[in-house]
Design a protein that fits this description.
heterodimer, A: 278 residues, alpha/beta, Rossmann fold, 4-stranded antiparallel beta sheet, B: 245 residues, mainly alpha, 76% helix, globular
Chain lengths: 278, 245
Amino acid sequence: MIVIENLRKQYGAFTALDGVSLRVAPGELFAYLGPNGAGKSTTIKILTGLTRLSGGSATLGGADIQTDPIAAKRQCGVVMQHINLDSDLTLVENMDIHGRLFGMSAADRVARTEELLGYVDLYDRKEKLVSTLSGGMKRRLMIARALMHNPSILFLDEPTVGLDAEIRRRIWGLIKKIQNAGTTIFLTTHYIEEAEFLADRVAFLDEGRLRALDTPLALMHRVGAWAFDRLTEDGMKTEYFPDRDSAQAAVTLDAGGHTLRRVNLEDAFLTLTGKTVV
Amino acid sequence: MLHGLGAVYLREMRILKRRFKRHIVGMAISPLLYLVAFGTAMGTEARFDGHTYLEFLLPGLVAMTSMTQSFSTSTEINIARFYLHIFEEFQSAPISNVAYVLGEVLSGMTRALIGIVLILGLGAAFGVILHTGPWFWLAAALNAFAFSSLAVLLAMIVRSHGDQALLNAFVITPMAFLGGTFFPLDRLPEWAQNILYALPLTHAAQAIRGDVFGRPVVWAHFAVLVAVGAVVFIIALKSVGRARD
């Protein structure tokens, strides 16, 4: 369980987080969606001990991140947005150091490394240096490393950023598999389809504030069920309709170029925040 | 409280092992140049405290190497912070600041030990075999502890690799040349001696040289090294917490 109450973060005069409150249930896959600079990574950095909060509070599995940070950190696995692996060490050595940091026994470290490198399909490369891996492989290794100590909560900060579509899909499959094993997942992303495909609930974050929080379907239904994109002299305009029939009626009245489609999460974000995600 | 110390230390040692050959060559170049340029050029006729210049220089180089090699930990921490971002692994792990700082300090002291052994070997190759008693090793260890702690402290404060280079230029290089490494301090005016005795390296060089030359132990040198090491270590602990922003 993740509980965040009125979380605030100031960098000088700049407010990165402005009173965010939310709860993530055990086993839930929670997506935190917002444009660059919205405060997504700042939230994860605060929750995982990388940055201090300026106000509010947060608990991870009941452990307060300020008064009992060691207990809070023990429950977390973190996959940061950027690659943070030791490139001069092998895959096994990277996993081993992580296991030692979390106080795992030698036998557990060996067994868990074998299991997880197989899980992320990197077993054959276990004795290679990390510097020899591709970008997608490094991401998978980071996920495996974060799972090494069997955390109950996994933070994924933009886990597929910069990866091609095929590898992204593969990592999505892996994330689903981790959730099915009972892990609570807190995912930040600015890929709409990633949140739509993976998340049980989605929070829209913009300029450090929570704009909306609900299931992907419920957020989309706040806008409508069907969207009608029409090319006008002022650019693309989108109208939303509660059902296909009413949208179809608008289409027949329109003589220009248009597209009729189902509403997606991006429509919801755009309507509820007035901004695009990317 | 010390849980995680082994992980921090082991990581540094694994990286050191992987780069060991390059590292040894890098460690040897400067002292070798000093030995060739200063040691042999001064010959055996010039006497310092009743010893040849090479015999005088070598303990100074031991002190200097224990400083530079332990302080080189700051570069490794910088790479971990700004380039590899591995520092985040330590920040998000359930370990205390004491465990992290001690792990890095011990790795700095290990580097210093390797450097000292290398200097002793180079000295032997130049025909000077130093007597190394317990006070020699204690002074070298205390000096390495103080400068490893300083390395962690400054690595937490700097914001870029560029800042790190500035620190080397303004802190380490002047100390290396002025801390009693290359010349006897008693040949300087008193006011200059007073300034140079404020440097921990001066006390390390004097303590190491004193043991090598069989002089009585001067406790003040050890007291200064212990005091500086303790103060810098405590500030380093605080600085790790401050590096979270």
